[in-house]
Amino acid sequence: MKQVCSSRVPDPKRSLASHLPAVLDHLMEGITSREWRAREASCLALADVLRPETLHLRAARALQVAMAAQQTTCSART
Questions:
Q1: What is the residue-level pLDDT of the chain in tens, covering all 78 positions?
Q2: d(Cα 8, Cα 72) in Å, to the nearest integer?
Q3: CA distance 77 to 8
Q4: Under a CB-based contact definition with an 8 Å cutoff, are residues 48 and 2 in contact?
Q5: Per-residue pLDDT at 3
Q6: Is 33 helix (H, G, I), strand (E, B) or coil?
Q7: Based on C-alpha coordinates, what's the Rg of the chain?
Q8: Which residues contact 65 (CB under 8 A, 6 or more apart)?
């Protein structure tokens, strides 16, 4: 995914920083999707977006992501 983004966007880090709320909203929708492909892709994308070096800057949003993932995991087990 990083290669696709790098080839299509001149400065991926700046673009991600400026569009982060919209990207995270889209990934949050995907992480709770009924389709496993969408959940898997969203989880992998979240791992790329929420890198450890930037996680402290987005701690509140990361907490929301973790809570949604936990709810998805718990509902998938039932």
A1: 566 666 777 877 777 778 888 888 898 899 888 999 999 999 888 888 877 666 666 666 767 777 887 777 666 555
A2: 32
A3: 38
A4: yes
A5: 65
A6: coil
A7: 13
A8: 24, 27, 28, 31, 46, 50
Type of residue numbered 49: V
Q: Which residues contact 6 (CB under 8 A, 6 or more apart)?
A: 12
Report d(CA 23, CA 16) in Å as an integer: 8
CA 28 – CA 77 distance, rounded (Å): 19
pLDDT (0 to 100) of residue 56: 60
Which tokens go with 56?
A: 């402290």
